[in-house]
Amino acid sequence: MKYSISLFSFLLTLIFLEICVRTFVDNGMNYEIEMMKYANNFKKVSSNKKIGIEHQKNLSGKLMGADIFLDKNGFRKNSKIKKNSKKIIMLGDSMTFGWGANKTFSHILNERILTHEVFNAGIGNTNTIMQINNFFENFSKEYAYDMVVLNFFINDFENVLVKEPNFFQKYSYFYTFLNNKINIILIKLKMKKDWKNFYSENYLNNEIKNETLALINNLNKFCLDNDMQFVIHNIPELRDLKNYKFNKETKIISEFAKTKNIKFINSYDVLKKYEEKSLWVTDLDPHANDRAHRIISEFLFDNLNNYLN
């Protein structure tokens, strides 16, 4: 009887804490909770392990203060559809998807480049291997693209392990909130890697790195064989831009592009001029905000125009 009462009290406490987090913490701008909503409502585990994660299709909603619309391909929808125009596809992760931004650089480019329609195929929590495999399986046959842009972020050599979440990871706001707070404490106590060490150590996995570079080369050959322009666009980590920690890591991808005669552009060249936090979604979320996306779009517009047919 005593154990039953204790268990019942414990369950009541969990329910109370869950209600509290949903009522007082979930304001639509909590990074971890919004990411949980994104995973539950907008993404799915792919049947193809090489792809890992796909977007759901024909969905809309609000995430991290931004209105999200996914079209029939799972692309983040632009406001302007251009029929019978040439096509550009943007591959990438959450920085390309536009986490926390209402108008992504793909969206703005679609408005500015009158001769082309720009598709945003960015998917959060994916690496370059997943993005390129997704392109070959799901996107390459949908349209005859004039240009493919691979938007590369500092963690795109990460070995992403995709697995179904447990009940609490999937449904509990309190669990997500508490887990995030524990991780912050562990990082401060140096019991868990901080973002600088995490990103740098991604580049030590030679198996993932070599597989990534081989797939980029396959995508380059595909574009050459099909008369498509191929461009690699590097998006920098937006923390500590004035004392950037990842020039050596960025050089790996830029030197590879040079050896394969792949066009490489680096938006660090323009973003480093700005105060870092003015480019973030929130002080706790250094994804690119609307201002950063506008700056990137202007930089890309100036550079991509040189390659458009």
Overall mean pLDDT stands at: 94
Number of domains: 1
Find the CATH superfamily.
SGNH hydrolase
CATH level 1 name: Alpha Beta
Briefly note the structural class of the backbone.
alpha/beta
| Count, helices | 12
What string gives the helices and strands in order?
Answer: HHEEEEEHHEHEHHHHEHEHEEH
Query: What is the alpha-carbon Rg in Å?
Result: 21 Å
As for the CATH topology, it is Rossmann fold
State the helical fraction. 40-55%
Number of strands: 11
Biggest sheet features: 5 strands, parallel
Provide a concise account of the structure shown:
The protein is an alpha/beta fold. It has twelve helices and eleven strands.
Can you walk me through this structure?
- By secondary structure, the chain is of the alpha/beta class.
- It has a single domain, classed as Rossmann fold, CATH 3.40.50.
- The protein is built from twelve helices and eleven strands.
- The strands form four sheets. Strands 6-5-7-8-9 form a five-stranded parallel beta sheet, sandwiched between helices. A two-stranded antiparallel ribbon has the order 1-2.
- A hairpin with a 2-residue loop joins strand 10 and strand 11.
- It starts with a helix and ends in a 5-residue tail after the last helix.
